[in-house]
Amino acid sequence: MIGEISSFSNALANAFTNTLGGKSTQISSWRNTLRASSSIAMAIISVVILFNLNTITLRVILIGIAAGFIGGLGLPFIYQAFSIGSVSFVSPVVALVQSFNLILFAVLVKDESISWTFPIATALGALGLFLASRTSASHQKATLKVFGLTTAAACCFTGFSVLMTEIDESQIIAALFGARIGVLLVSLIFSPKSNQKPQSSSWKKYALLSGSCEMLANLFFMIAITNLELSKVGVFMASAPALSALIAIKLMKQRPSIANWLGIAATSSALAIIALN
């Protein structure tokens, strides 16, 4: 039960992370959002690690830093995609690309075979993306730029997921501490520009909430993969596109069309098939 609850909580926290980060970027810039969100997440894990100092090893910290740095490189892309694109399109794309990347890794590196259901999932995913790319009821459109940003983010997030599977349950907090160092390094590389001063300071609350949710999402993901088979974790994570779309209705004033909802349903089904097989 812990694994199932953590898997769904990961999907929900990720949905909030991305939409809140997108909202902050709309008001300010992705650089400001990245710096604020990474700082609050680092502050949270720094307090938690004080009670888990005995779990720290050089290997775990280095894996965490590498995973966090690679995953952190995807944050500027996803913040921008959510700020300028349709959430009902961006969410399915990032979920599907991540899943297909993990399959590619499993086949090429782990020498696993592809199930006979994979072509079905591929067809469903393609249909889902086509429907999700239709103009939403609130007139948001899917563009090639948004698709490129989302795909780049998904590739970076795949790297984070692959590296973090090397961590044992007893090393979760130490690994997350290392990961937050990696993300913080990314935010220092892409520091906010002095000429990018937002007209409103309301972006800060969205950025800080995004960073807090991201920290929770990382924690739930680690708990999930150490208590449940990765395939079952994937089934629950398939709910992320629908959750993001629901959150965006209120937070970003985006209303998916019927075609968009059908696309989200199709991509979620494709993700569930991929995860189960």
Automatic annotation (TrEMBL):
GO CC annotations on file: membrane
One family name in Pfam for this protein: EamA
Family: Belongs to the EamA transporter family.
Keywords: Membrane, Transmembrane, Transmembrane helix
Species annotation: Candidatus Nanopelagicus limnae
Domain EamA: 155-274
Transmembrane segments: 33-53, 59-79, 86-108, 114-132, 144-164, 170-190, 206-227, 258-276
Record-given protein name: Permease of the drug/metabolite transporter (DMT) superfamily
Keyword tRNA processing: no
